[in-house]
Amino acid sequence: MKKERVFFITVADKPGVLFKITNIFRRRNFNIESVTVGKTLVKGESQIVIVINADDEEADSFARMVKKLIDVYEVIEAPKESCYAQELLLAKLDGEHEELEKLAKKYGAEVVENGSLIIKYAGEPSNVEMLAEELTRFKIIHISRTGITAVVKEDGKDILRFGR
Amino acid sequence: MASYISGAQALVRALEKEKVEVIFGIPGGATLTFYDALKDSSIRHVLARHEQSAAHMADGYARASGKVGVCTATSGPGATNLLTGIATAYLDSSPVVAITGQVAKDYIGKDAFQEIDTVGIYTPVVKYAFQPLSAAEIPFDVKAAFYIASTGRQGPVLIDVPKDVQIEKAEIDFPEKVEIKGYRPYISPHPEAVREAAKLIIQAQKPIILVGGGAVKSGVGPKVVELAEMLMIPVASTLMGKGAIPENHFLAVGPIGMHGTYHANTLIMESDLVIGIGVRFSDRTTMDIKEFSKDKIILHFDIDPTEARKNILNELPVIGDLNESVSMLVSEIRKMMPYTKDSPWYKRVKELKEYYEDKIFGENVMSPLVIKKIREVLHPDDIVTTEVGQAQAWAELFYKALAPRTFITSGGLGTMGFGFPAAIGAKVAKFDKTVVDIAGDGSFLMTSNSLATSVSEGIPVVVVILNNSVLGMIAQWQRIVYNNRYIASSLGETPNFPALAKAYGAEGVRVNGLEDFEKYLKEAIKSEVTYVIDVPISPEENVFPFVPAGKSLKEMIV
């Protein structure tokens, strides 16, 4: 069954690695829903978190193809429901400060003022989606979303692990 | 022990340390410094006349010898020309190291003269791509490139060396060993998976072994023979698996696939269990994969974890070193009850094999007889390479490979023009063996300028052209699948091949009939010069059996 899958890919922190990984998805015509990259605690390594829509076989095959890349040290694949996932949204706006405060309160977001009017929210990806929708009634100057990052839940199901 | 030398000198010394005997290539602006350093080395350089051929030569050398083949080209057009040859090596898992020159670091990415994103375009068709950005990195990259190319599932590796890195001097160390984090080529098979496989084999009534290119490369053949004889079951092969076991063995049934033998295709479709060894169940081998895997158990022994369940979802994969896994399998089965010689399945195998083994389908066909004659004349460990198309399919069907690494063909990528330069590479590797390229006129024209290399470098090979003045396989499809609507498959007035050969300083002859052919083939072998034997055949000759695309192996046209 097609569903959202999260790939946690630990890689060598050097040029060209992300290209090789995304190229594997591109070759089979898969759209990457989201990708985030950050350093791990180990020097010279980083972690790439990729979300795609795929069925069980596709996910298994992708995980093994990605692991086969020499610069990839470990691949963990989990259905999104087996993950605790979060996304960060930042939006610079023009508009009523008070109205924005009200909206921020509803979501537990924060209004930052440093010369510009900025709303900052980190939370469930679905909430980020809703908030983004509501922000359209303001004049948005610039909106940035990180895409999701996540960790696997302790009781998460159907988790594949390759490498190490 | 460090020495103060240039990057180019370090590159040459690193290649020497890998015991490289020969490099196939063409120099250019971005490799002049490398070539300058090569002048002081004992490594032989074979000058190709097109970079694609240089890559095929290195590939042919690798396939014939089992060693890593090395080729080189300059930046830009040199690298793009070389690419087809490297992709060919990649699809057939052949260990080749390609060294390309690159423009100086400061010019990379700025559309400089003869600059192209070599690493970018090679990445999907190599196991790994290195681009050293300082001279000091070169020894590690070379050592790692050879290690990666030659271990696990083998394949090509690129080293793209910017010109200023070749020139730069530095104190350079040469590592004795490299560790590559994230690369663990050796995989030990899981004993439980092997036991499970053994159990399924014992329970099966009609098992068949299918060997592929992995079985040739790993040298697992003798163990496969042991397995087959113990169970008295047939051994089929893929195109790439030809020669893994001697094809004249009493249990060998030849290749399956689009142009498999009648009995091999029939037997594998009748079987209830397939023991795949070093195969990848490619579309040309299995044809309609649903029909192929229906009502049977598929066991899949391979070194590459990504091959598991890639094409057949419900197979049982046994991932690991083939020599180890097949040995384990043999000893597991030995513990259980083996088959008897008189099983109904063995009788069926014998019956089909006896009836179809020497059968030639179609009327007035010449090509199969030519191929059989080549087999008759050559020694068991002489080498045949093939071009791609009808000539390849006839060779697949009618040339019995009797030893591993004696049948060299572009199976995965199907690259026309492969056979002749690959023959030159194979001859360099095995100079005391006769090497024959089984060619079509269409394919030969793609790399026939390698005649210049063959003659001037003193690398004599025999080219047998099955000359039908058409792109034979295209014409065959247009005849059978496209209702005789021929377009662009006629080659019209093809060159006078013997004259072409002579123009290059080689020998050439056009033969009349089989006896004439035999006479000149023997003369060509004895002459020890490059020899082109032009064999006229009818443009209407078809390769049979033929399974059209999309059909199952049962639906052979004969």
- Give the number of domains of chain A: 2
How many structural domains are formed by the residues of chain B? 3
Give me the CATH superfamily of the largest domain in chain A. ACT domain
Structural class of chain B: alpha/beta
Describe the largest sheet of chain B.
Answer: 6 strands, parallel
Structure description:
The complex is a heterodimer of chains A (about 160) and B (about 550). Chain A is of the alpha+beta class and about 160 residues long. Chain A has 2 domains: about 5-85 and about 155-165, ACT domain (Alpha-Beta Plaits, 2-Layer Sandwich); about 85-150, 2-Layer Sandwich (Alpha-Beta Plaits), CATH 3.30.70.1150. Chain A is built from 4 helices and 10 strands; from the N terminus they run E-H-E-E-H-E-E-H-E-E-H-E-E-E. Chain A has helices at about 15-25, 55-70, 95-105, 125-135; strands at about 5-10, 30-40, 45-55, 70-80, 85-95, 110-115, 115-125, 140-145, 150, 160-164. In chain A, the strands form 2 sheets. Chain A has a 5-stranded antiparallel sheet with strand order 2-3-1-4-10, with helices on one face. The longest helix of chain A has 13 residues, at about 55-70. Chain A is elongated and about 55 Å long. Chain A starts with a strand and ends with a strand. The relative contact order of chain A is 0.22. Chain B has 3 domains: about 5-170, Rossmann fold, CATH 3.40.50.970; about 190-355, 3-Layer(aba) Sandwich (Rossmann fold); about 365-535, Thiamin diphosphate (ThDP)-binding fold, Pyr/PP domains (Rossmann fold, 3-Layer(aba) Sandwich). Chain B starts with a strand and ends in a 22-residue tail after the last strand. Chain B contains 23 helices and 20 strands. In chain B, strands 3-2-4-5-7-6 form a 6-stranded parallel sheet, sandwiched between helices. Chain B has a 6-stranded parallel sheet with strand order 11-10-9-12-13-14, with helices on both faces. Chain B has a 6-stranded parallel sheet with strand order 16-15-17-18-20-19, sandwiched between helices. Chain B is α/β, with parallel strands linked by helices and about 550 residues long. The interface between A and B is medium-sized, with 20 and 19 residues.
